[in-house]
Design goal:
The protein is mainly α. The chain is built from 4 helices and no strands. The longest helix has 78 residues, at 88-165. The chain is rod-shaped, with a radius of gyration of 37 Å. The protein starts with a helix and ends in a 12-residue tail after the last helix.
């Protein structure tokens, strides 16, 4: 029963290892090619660029300076007040910016999430392969140890027989003295 289960497990492990080896070969072949696996669409490029720009310190600093200038010019009235105190036009502009920026940023995040998920799946498959390879190595080492123990047992038995044949075999200790 145990041998049957062991051979079934071994066959399943071998099949899984073969599948994983084929998968890794196909990944290496894709990575080795000059052509990218897929071209980004214009929308994806724009989303990545908007997310990269709006997620930078340069953007935050420039926007902060523009907002401060807008507020100062409207409060101090150096120039005609085009947007008095509750700054309704400024709120409208910022809402407009947020309304268009959020979907671009979410598209870029979704793309990055898909890339991360794919990498995690590949890492998982590699980890399974490594685990199975290590298990197979353990099995081989166990088999080698079993063979070594059998060889040593056989050698000790032969040496004992040889010593008995010469009359110098160690005598068994007396029990109960």
């Amino acid at each position: 029963m145990m041998d049957t289960l062991k051979s079934e497990l071994h066959a399943t492990e071998e099949r899984l290892l073969d599948e994983l080896r084929g998968f890794r070969k196909s990944l290496r072949a894709k990575a080795g090619g000059d052509a990218p696996s897929h071209e980004l669409t214009i929308g994806q490029k724009v989303a990545d660029q908007v997310a990269a720009t709006m997620g930078s310190w340069n953007f935050i600093i420039i926007q902060t300076i523009l907002l401060a200038v807008w507020i100062v010019l409207n409060v101090t009235a150096f120039v005609e007040k085009w947007d008095p105190y509750p700054f309704i036009l400024l709120n409208l502009a910022l809402s407009f910016q947020a309304a268009y920026a959020a979907p671009f940023i979410m598209m870029a995040q979704n793309r990055q999430q898909d890339i991360d998920r794919q990498k995690a799946e590949e890492d998982y498959k590699v980890n399974i392969k490594a685990e199975l390879e290590i298990e197979l190595l353990h099995q081989k080492i166990d088999e080698m140890r079993e063979k070594e123990v059998l060889y040593l047992t056989k050698t000790i038995a032969e040496l004992t027989e040889h010593l008995r044949g010469e009359g110098r075999a160690p005598s068994a200790p007396a029990v109960g003295g």
